[in-house]
Amino acid sequence: MLGIVGTGRIAAALVTGLCTSERPPAKVLVSPRNAETAAKLAKRHAMVSVAADNQAVVDGSEWVLLAVRPQVAREVVGALRFKPGQKVLSAIAPIADEWIDDAVKPGKLVARLLPLPPVEQRLGPIAFFPGDRDVEALLKPVGTTVPLGSKHELLVIWTLTTLIASYYGFVSHAVDWAARNDADPQAARTYMTSMLHALSTIAAAPAAAPPAELAQHAQTKGGLNEQVARDLAAKGWFDAIGPTLDAVRRRLEGRG
Ligand SMILES: NC(=O)c1ccc[n+]([C@@H]2O[C@H](COP(=O)([O-])OP(=O)(O)OC[C@H]3O[C@@H](n4cnc5c(N)ncnc54)[C@H](OP(=O)(O)O)[C@@H]3O)[C@@H](O)[C@H]2O)c1
Q1: What angle do CA 235, 238, 240 make, to 5 degrees?
Q2: Distance from Cα 221 to the centre of ligand 1, integer Å
């Protein structure tokens, strides 16, 4: 039995991904808040039931996933009594969260996870630390598992997720430009997203060259790709990424 404390956006995505996967969990017990999300999940997936309260989730589960927001996490988790050896996972953003290890005793915080909403469609990465085998087996049906070597690394990878909105912004600007230049917006969108999907698929292959090398291969001397890469670099496009992510990381570390 997998129990979830904090039935919000990411919990709903993960539960739906798991329950619609080829290896669905036998039973999932979700906490009653948010009531609407919990009811929807229970209605949609036969193996999901809604517990009476957070403690009932812990009492009725072997694995417990903590998925409340950081602002309330200490109060919510601190009020729970865990079973000896109970396996606990935390999807809570790792902002000054060292207290969790003690708060779940005599249970054990087995791993901190970083799932993303596309797990609902069983797509995308799920990073986790430490790289526990049971955790990997649990998560494999819903995405690309990325075991990490340290909590620091998890925080650095968490920082990368803040590029999502800008990525869509980049796509949107390119497609809008095409539309302003009289391309059919739907055709431009299909072409752009399919192109990016293909490039990501190629870059994700285990034997693929590093991204910097792929970038070099994609441009010929004096060619149009080289022109755009040079032009965008001159406008500060690439140099802005490092300092921008530094600022996010400082914020995640509670220093910003
Ligand atoms: N969203 C993401 O992409 C993502 C990715 C990775 C990790 N995370 C982490 O996952 C956690 C949840 O994020 P989220 O985006 O899913 O937020 P969310 O949608 O706000 O979910 C949090 C849930 O916790 C519920 N809750 C509030 N107080 C509670 C309590 N006392 N007992 C039980 N449940 C309570 C909320 O209910 P109400 O709606 O009734 O307040 C809500 O359903 C955060 O720590 C976040 O950092 C999120």
Answers
A1: 85
A2: 49
Total number of domains in the chain? 2
- Tell me, yes or no, if the pTM score tops 0.90: yes
d(CA 58, CA 51): 9
pLDDT tens per residue across span 196-254:
999 999 999 999 999 999 999 999 999 999 999 999 999 999 999 999 999 999 998 88
- Going by pLDDT thresholds of 50, 70 and 90, the confidence category of residue 96 is confident
Given 94, 117, 149, the domain boundary residue is: 149
Atom from ligand 1 closest to the CA of residue 115: 6
Residue-wise pLDDT for 21-66, tens only, equals: 999 999 999 999 999 999 999 999 999 999 999 999 999 999 999 9
Q: Say how many Å lie between the CA of residue 246 and the centre of ligand 1.
A: 25
23 and 144 share one domain: yes
Atom of ligand 1 nearest to the CA of 117: 3
Residues 144 and 184 in one domain: no
Say if residue 212 is in the same domain as residue 244: yes
> Which residues constitute the domain of residue 235?
162-252
Peptide bond into 34 cis (omega under 30): yes
Q: Which token pair is 3?
A: 């129990």
Among 149, 177, 197, the domain-final residue is 149
- Least Cα distance to 122 among 23, 230, 235 occurs for 23
Atom of ligand 1 nearest to the CA of 158: 6
Exposed / middle / buried, residue 256 (Cβ in 10 Å: 0-12, 13-18, 19+): exposed
Q: Which range in 5-19, 94-108, 241-255 is most confidently predicted, on average pLDDT?
A: 5-19
